[in-house]
Amino acid sequence: MRVYDFLKYLFSGVGGALLVGAFLWYQNTVSFLDEALEAPGVVTDLVYSRSSDSSSYYPVVRFEDDAGQVIEFQSSSGSNPASYSRGERVLVFYLPGEPESARIDGFFSLWGGALILGIIGGAFFLVGILMVLVPLIRKGRSAKLRESGQLVMASFRSVEQNTSLVMNGQSPFRIVTQWQDPATANLHVFRSENLWFDPTDHIPGESIPVYIRPDNPKRYWVDTSFLPKLAS
């Protein structure tokens, strides 16, 4: 559980920081465009760049600033296939007196960084928030079932590992029980919440208390309050 707690705060923190970074990047671009001058430019070359897992073409643009100085710069935004071709005319934004700040008037040239950072940050933040909210929601549902649900004594069947969840190389355990509804004769299988220790030696008997919704036994909560608490 300590690993889970660490991860949920890590994901939330990293996601939040990336979202703040994306917002600041967006604000920086807005401020840049408010102050920038425009100039016509032409793509003079395409610089091919290759990394271990991707490759991109970066346009090189030449333009003349308001002082009559000819400036050539390589865009920081590349793509594959290339978004521009040699000889193509483009619009360039640059800050007065700072021709090295020049950017092509293109969506990804202006907004791509903030967009990518925002998407990654949003994904991290969403995972972190879900890791916080899901246990709280489950805790609220179990509390409601304890208050208003029907208590049944289900038969203990086994202890299984939930291999669909792996944390720090380990999978949690679940207590498996079953109960036959005397009204319908239907057999229901109930599984406890994830337990981060093997509860086999702590099962007190053949029956386990389970709280169910009388109108929908698929909504249930296995009461494991009899188990010892895992030391933190």
> What percent of residues adopt helix (DSSP H or I)?
25-40%
Order of helices and strands: HEEEEEHEEEEE
End-to-end Cα distance, whole Å, is 8 Å
Low-pLDDT runs of 5+ residues are none
Radius of gyration: 30 Å
The percent range for strand residues is: 35-45%
What is the strand and helix layout of this fold?
Blueprint lengths: L1 H34 L1 E14 L4 E10 L5 E5 L14 E7 L2 E7 L2 H42 L1 E12 L11 E8 L6 E5 L15 E7 L2 E7 L10
Antiparallel strand pairs: 1-2, 1-4, 2-3, 4-5, 6-7, 6-9, 7-8, 9-10
Helix pairs in contact: 1-2
Describe the protein's architecture and organization:
The chain is of the alpha+beta class and 232 residues long. Helices cover 33% and strands 35% of the residues. The protein contains two helices and ten strands, in the order αβββββαβββββ. It has a five-stranded antiparallel β-sheet, with helices on one face. Strands 8-7-6-9-10 form a five-stranded antiparallel β-sheet. A hairpin with a 5-residue loop joins β2 and β3. α1 packs antiparallel against α2 (107-148). The longest helix is centred in the middle third of the chain and has 42 residues, at 107-148. The chain is rod-shaped. The termini are close together. The relative contact order is 0.14.
